[in-house]
Structures are given as C-alpha cells and as structure tokens.
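Folding Problem: From Residues to Backbone Shape
Fields: amino acid sequence; protein backbone structure tokens
RECORD BEGINS BELOW THIS LINE
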Amino acid sequence: MHNLDDLRKEIDHIDKKLVSLFERRMEIVSEIAAYKIQNNISIEDSSRENDVLQKNIQYLNNSIFKESLMKFFNALMKISKEFQDHF
C-alpha cells in the first residue's frame, strides 16, 4: 500500500491535469457560446447533454464510478451553461 503523502501527490498531479483540461474545455465553451449567439440557438440542449453522459459512461473501466461520473458531468455541463448565460 502507498503512503498517504504519495497518494496525495498523485492526486495533486491529476488535479493539475484536470485544471488544464477544464481551462481548454471552457475556451471551447466560449466558442460554442459565440456560435449560439450568432445563430440564435438556445443554450439548453437536453439531447446533447444526454449524449455526453451516455458517451462518457461508456469510457468507464469500472462501473462502480458510474453515478459519480454522471454527477461530475452534470456539474460540468451546468458550469458550462452558466458560463454561456453570462457570455
């Protein structure tokens, strides 16, 4: 078993990658918001949100994390929509 400090360092390393990926995702969300504004498209797209959830669940190797992953992506999509609302 790893010691706690080593595990926390690994989490810190993963978090750093997550921040970078989040930032890139939000940059793309900005582009999507601009496109939606120019083309008078609603921010809400429940079909797309469902597709995102279903697609990402398929990437899981361990189904024990399914509910947590769904919560994660629901929160991420909520953040994205709120950002688009204020764009």
About this structure: The chain has one domain: 4-85. The chain has a mean pLDDT of 97. Residues 4-85 form a domain with the Chorismate Mutase Domain, subunit A fold (CATH 1.20.59.10).
